[in-house]
Amino acid sequence: KAGVTQTPRYLIKTRGQQVTLSCSPISGHRSVSWYQQTPGQGLQFLFEYFSETQRNKGNFPGRFSGRQFSNSRSEMNVSTLELGDSALYLCASSSGTQPYNEQFFGPGTRLTVL
Amino acid sequence: KQEVTQIPAALSVPEGENLVLNCSFTDSAIYNLQWFRQDPGKGLTSLLLIQSSQREQTSGRLNASLDKSSGRSTLYIAASQPGDSATYLCAGTSGGSYIPTFGRGTSLIVHP
Fold first, then answer.
1. How many other C-beta atoms can be found within 10 angstroms of the C-beta atom of residue B8?
2. What is the CA radius of gyration of chain A?
3. Which residues of B touch A57 (CB under 8 A)?
4. Chain-chain contact of A48 with B99 (C-beta, under 8 angstroms)
5. What is the pLDDT of residues B22-31, one digit of tens each?
6. Per-residue pLDDT tens for A58-70?
């Protein structure tokens, strides 16, 4: 079974631009979660989508948004990029049917904002 | 609200040692506790998942235990190898949430 895939793996953008990241979950998984990881803040939860609906949301500004498609693939968008948005963005998939379902992570997208 | 703490933050040991990594959580009504490994700049690899009804799980040289009453989980690594060098994170899910709460991780270096 193929794992979680994320594209692109690396991105370099400048302040003020916007960016879209993509995540394809494990086949059959309906939940996709997004995390931001930085050395200073660790792993911070952005949002979770389940069956095309945002089910949970972390404490990030509205510049961070996401969506999920009918095939469970998810995209995350960041508008008006700031230097502080430079981070490793990780997505995780799970079946999402129970709170104790195991989480599987993708390799991440490294975003650098100049 | 679940809080997860990992001690120590960093650990350096010689090859061959048996180690214990600690993970503490505040909400004992935990659904599961998952241990991950992360290599620098990479994603998280799931190592072991312990459900609330279980006491421990084993995979090769790794053994993870869960004690809900004391709010602790430990990851035991037997006969450590340089390839075990990585950051180890634990995450607990509780309180009706589908979102796990992560610790800050323990950075492990195993030197030859």
1. 11
2. 13
3. none
4. yes
5. 999 998 888 8
6. 999 999 999 999 9
Q: Output the CA–CA distances (angstroms, integers) from residue B7 to A24, B14, B39, B77, in the order listed.
A: 33, 19, 18, 15
Q: How far is B29 from B97, CA to CA, in rounded Å?
A: 11
Question: With an 8 Å Cβ cutoff, is A45 touching chain B?
Answer: yes
Say if residue A1's pLDDT is above 70.
Answer: no
Report residue B99 as tokens.
Answer: 């979102």
Tell me: the pLDDT tens digits for B46-105? 999 999 899 999 999 999 999 999 999 999 999 999 999 999 999 998 877 778 899 999
Which tokens hold the place of A104? 């599987």
Q: Report helix, strand or coil for B108.
A: strand
Q: How far apart are CA A81 and CA A69, in angstroms?
A: 24
- What is the pairing mode between strands A64-68 and A53-57? unpaired
Nearest chain B CA: its distance from A108 CA (Å): 5
- Beta carbons of B49 and B62 less than 8 angstroms apart: no
A99, exposed or middle or buried, with CB in 10 Å at 0-12, 13-18, 19+?
middle
